[in-house]
Amino acid sequence: MSGKVCVFGSFNFDMVARVDRFPVPGESLVACGSMTSAGGKGANQATAALKAGANVHYIGKIGNDTFGHFARRHLKGVGFNAVTLLVAEEIPTGNALIYVAGNDAENMIAVDPGANMTVTDDEIAGCIPAIGCADVVLVQLENNLSAIEQVIDAGKQAGALVMLNPAPWQPVERALLSKVDLLTPNATEAGLMTGRRVDSLAAAAEAADVLHAQGARNVIITLGASGRPAERAGSEISCSLLSFSPPRHHRCGRCLQRRAGGAAGLRGTATGRSPIRGGLCRRQCRKARRLIFT
To answer: Can you tell me the distance from the alpha carbon of 30 to that of 186, in angstroms, rounded to the nearest whole number?
Structure first.
């Protein structure tokens, strides 16, 4: 039976334009093509968990607008086991304007978080039963911190394994990090959290030490395409990146590579099985002080 994963996080309506290069300030540039799609770190990660075989309950907040109606149709079609959609009457659904340039799919993104940042204490209180049923609770930082903290507290109280993907980065208190079982920054986010440049496995190990000292129990730092295959002993584990070419229209190809590499590494090393399909192995995960993937 698959593990139960509760994902609290953002939903965004993405508007994507493909261009040969990014425009300079003041320039109007003819795009090679365009598309709209569902996005938001929370909805994306919930979808990934579902595809990995988990029983997923997604919790998010949208506006009562055209983008919100799109969100309802999209999330219904994904096939989540359960969806809780909170609604802001006066605030728009989160949305993102995205340029994707060139064959390497570099991107430039402007995000209006909209309703994602307006989750109230009472709304989270109504979601406590769903959070309490989960084996794994996954949150990001694309919602207001007060709501994120409540979800983390509820997950810990229920005995779930709590994962925090600290993106998009915003300052968080050490007290919050100490409640997280698994912290998963990328190299940029790890650098912002530690004040260090994270551009190698050695630098990632040092950053993981700092994050551990700040209260994080276990850390996965994803280095993406800049990482190098390496074998490490003891509490540090690394694996080679599982690389592939992202679709040209995708707004975050490098993010896809990092997540694919991290999932492959967890399956083969720290837990011995998929982190989602069976739920993260809490005993083995907590034995490892730092998990570093390239």
So the answer is: 33
